[in-house]
TrEMBL record, chain A:
Organism for this UniProt entry: Pseudooceanicola sediminis
Protein name stated in the entry: Thiamine ABC transporter substrate binding subunit
Endpoints of the signal sequence: 1-18
Annotated NCBIfam families: sfuA, thiB
Pfam families listed in its UniProt record: SBP_bac_11
Amino acid sequence: MKHLGFVAGCLLATQAAAQTPVLNVYTYDSFVPEWGPGPAIEKAFETKCGCDVVFTAAGDGAALLSRIRLEGERTEADVVLGLDTSLIAQARATGLFAETDVDAAYDLPVAWSDKTFVPYDWGYFAFVGNAGEDHPTSFRALADSDTTIVIEDPRSSTPGLGLLMWVKAAYGDEAPEIWEALADNIVTVTPGWSEAYGMFLDGEADMVLSYTTSPAYHVIAEDDSSKQAVAFDEGNYTQIEVAAKVASSDQSELADRFLAFLVEETAQGILPTTNWMYPAVMPAGGLPEAFEQIVAPGKALLMAPDQAEAARSGALEEWRNALSQ
Amino acid sequence: MAQRPVAIGRSLGYLAAALLLTLLGVPLLAIFLRAGGGVLPGPSDWAALRFTLTQASLSALFSVFLALPVARALARRRFPGRRMMVALTGAPFILPVVVAVMGLLAIFGAHGLLNTLAAQVGLGPWRIYGLHGVVLAHVFFNMPLAVRMILQGWQGIPSERFRLAAQLDLSPGGVFRLLEWPMLRQVVPGALAAIFAICLASFAVALILGGGPRATTVELGIYQAFMFDFDLGRAAVLALMQTALVAAAAILALLVTRMDGSGTGLDRALPRWDSPGGWRRLADVLGLIAAGAFLVGPLVAVALAGLSGFGDLPPGLWPAIANSLIVSLLSALTTVIVALALSAAQSRVVQGIGLLPLALSPLVLGTGYFLILNPVIVPGRLALPVTVLVNTLMALPFSLRVLAPAYVRVEADFGRLADTLALRGLARLRWLLLPRLRAPIGFAAGLAAALSMGDLGVITLFGSADRQTLPLLMFRLMGAYRTEAAASCGLILMALSFGIFWLFDQGGGKSNA
């Protein structure tokens, strides 16, 4: 009986809000908490649209895509927010996403012409260590050094997959050698970013695979400038986060408006200090000061979505073989 | 259910077992149907299987054999704080995995207490990462469970037997041969099988402490197949492989177990007159101290790490606590009801079936239910019932392992008397079973409540922004660089889990432990 009561409560709650149009946005987990970008963006868009924005959180970017694929055409989602460049090819192949005419003057490290996936923020993967220490500045130097690192697993986390693509983009066929040389630097591999970063903060390793923007968080939120990201000579791999309209959406026009809103001034101003990424379109007020101090990689590496998808399973096999010995 | 008079009997138990098999089998079937068949495992899957088997076997062996002297010491010694220690042995088991790993690293990590002390005297540094680290962590998690299971066995030996042993002046060796060994043959295989099955499904611990892809478990393959490759066929086949392993372990345990039982006593608590002194006393004391330090050290580290971040906790903490409590209490209730029903079968086959949920991770079950519900209703709307259902299934093996043997014992000891008095159905439940089973019910409910509290469960599939639970809040804080607040959240989670476990366990009453 208790179960039925709860079910009924949930159903009634959803029906009560049915008068105003509802825009269902599926996103990853770190977008929705009270300190994330979700609440502020929801509030700002709702004052404009006369609608109700409902965020649904589904793990990380990869889990988000799996959830949409599980739901298929029956999904309630109108917009999916939080896929990234390494997931775009898979996402496109599902045929679940529709084109949109949203466009903007993007400040991305690469030219953007995709009509389906709208980029809303981006960042560079980087190894982060303690400031003042002498950090290696390339994969080869890292492999030759005694520096210990903790990394994320490419089979269960997007940063881990990013690192895999980074080494592949920088070294191509030499990638297996790089991984073999790195094996003795790797303290351990974690399922996700949180565990890796937590272990780094606890001193389990000298450096952790994270983002160039990570030190900015510590400066802005904790007034702590003790963390430092390192630009690599090979260049740093880029992650561009995208949103897209779901083809089966019954709020197609509202979804388009939301995607357009996402790359406008207001939302772009919210993202840097809540999602800790670079804005896809530079806001008029520029970036917070701590962002200006972030190390800028000399080269932005990025594989095109189809190329990344084609390289993934081979690169994964190389990674596993090199590190399993 | 309460309105209808239900016969508490074996048929109810078999019915519950059939229901359980359905609840486990149907999701797996749904995944197979959706995938359009299975995908044969590749070489990396076989490597993962080998590692999974190795680490789970070692973890089970070490957990149980280290638990033996501790359980024996707890069974035959009486000292101030003993009850507290018995209660505390439940703590590591119910900790959320990530919290426990952080606690372990604070003791055994690169900058952990052990390495700091070792460095003082010029030793070390020791690295925790590798197979030994995985086994260490699993022993930390599961040895307490083994202690409780085995201790229960010891306490199941009627006190008259021990009094007789003392009167006959039996040597400790004689006590072991005549009283303890038959009991252990009954309890240890089950404990081994249970812990083996728990460790099979380990994923985060194995990967983090295993030090890299060498330490890949089948469960990681399942996660990857669902979340990264969306290869449902492969996920289903891997899940089936895990189920086969757990089933094999359960069958093996059934074959090895001897259900001689220790016979019937008058159910009186009496002091142990036979407790040997001398070096055996010293060994017991040392064993208890060592086990206590091993189990408590990481917990203290978790508590200390959590103290500084309280000021930074978000307002969302309170609704998260409320949500977690609701899920936890509902899960405890349903778990105890189902476990009691299964126990009523008084069948070791049914007990073996009760282990099977361990093989199917929340991810597999959640995805299966999701696929079943999706054509009918938006699955997110059934988040609470599905979460409670999955938590119930996950907690069931443990609760059943506690309840079923106790149920059998009560029926063996008092069943004939109850039959003579024509106690049947609910009356038997009310006057015989519930009073006699108070302690194991309390323990089982406490375990279920605490396990559900710390479980992230199927929230990724069914969750939404407004249904945040405490573990989810902790993960979100960790994912947003807010490590200190996350540590505080972990401390609150640990305190709540342990608190709710303790309340139930104490509520279960004095006769046990």
